[in-house]
Amino acid sequence: MDNTMIDFSARLRALTSEPSRDDARNEARLGRVQRTRDEMGGQGKAIRDTLASAAEGLEKLASAAARTPFRQIAVFGCGDSWFAGMAMRHAMEAASGVPVLAVQALEHAHYPSVAVGAGTLAIGISSGGNTPAVMQALAAAARQGAVTVGLTNTQGSPITAACDMSLMVQATRRGWPTQATSATMALLVEIASRIGDEGRGISSAGLLGDLASIIDEQIVGLDERCRVLAGGIAPASLVLTTGLGPNFAAAGIGAAKIRELSPIHAFALPLEEVHHYRSFKRGDPVVLIATDPIAEERALDTVLVAEDAGAPVVALLSRPASQIEARAEVLHIPEVPAGFEALVAIAPLHLLAYHLAVIRAELGLGAPVNLVPVS
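Predicted structure:
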C-alpha cells in the first residue's frame, strides 16, 4: 500500500477561493453582503429582461416541441439553481402538462434516473456556465437521449456550447445570488409554458410580469419590517427554515442566504419533517414559510411546538391566521396563484438574511463560540 501523503493544497485553495470569513466585521464578507443587497432591488427588472431576451430561443423551443412533444422535463442544478427547479416544479407541471423532475446535479451525474431519456427536456442551470456537477448531469442526460438546454448568466460560457440550446438569464451576480435566482425561476415556468400541449399549457408572461412587480414592491415595502425582525433573532447561532411544497424550496434559499451572508448556520427542513426529529431547540429561531393555504394546519402545529420549546418563530403568511399571528412574528406577503408561492416568498427571505448579517456585524457577533476552531 502506498502511504505517501498527497499534497492537496492547490486543490484546497480552489475549493476555498471565496474570501469571506466568519469574524464579525470581515471586510470581504461584508462587502459581498452589501453587493447582495444592491442586487436584490433589481429582481423585477431581471425577470422582465430575461423573458424578453429569451423570446427568440423560446420560440425555437416551442417549434421543436410541436414537432416532437416532450413527455417530461428534468431540471438540474446546485445550490440556488437546484432550489429554483424545486420551487417551480408545480407551476411548470401546470404550465406544460408533463411531469417535472428537479434533481441535484451531482446526484443525476452519478445516480441518473432511468426516467430521463428520449422525450425528456433536460435543463441545466449554471450561473457561471461551467459548474462541474451541472455539466456532468447534462452529459448524463444527453447520453440517455434527452434534449438539453443550458440556462446561464454568462455569455459564451461552456454550457452554451455543451447543450442543444441555451438561454441567457439577464441578471448580475456580484453578490450572493438573488436576482439570478428569481429570474431563473421565472424563465423555467415560461419554458414549461412554451412546450405545453395546445390548450393545456398556459401563457405565463403576463402573470410573471405581475409577480415581478410584486417582488419589487416587497423589497421596498418590507425592508424596515425585515430589519426589525432580524434584530430580534440576531444573537442566535442557528436558524431553522421550513415550508411545504414550493415553500420548502423557498426555505432552502432562505437558509442558504443566511449561511452565505452571516457567520452562523441555517438549515431547511420540509414542513412535515421538522416534527420528526426534536427539531425545535430553545432560542433557535424558526422561519416558517406558510403562504400556501394547504399548509395552514401543519404550520399551526409548527408554531405550537416551537412555542412550547422556547423557539421564536418568524412566519410568512399570505392570509389571516389569527392563531399563528398570536404566537409568532409575522410578515404578510401577497397571495399568488398556486405553484408561484416561492417566487414571491424569497424576496423577504433575502431581506431578512441581509439585515441579520448587518446587525450581527454591528453587534460584533462573529462565528458562535462552538463554531470557532480551537488553536
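Summary: The first strand starts at residue 72 and ends at 77.
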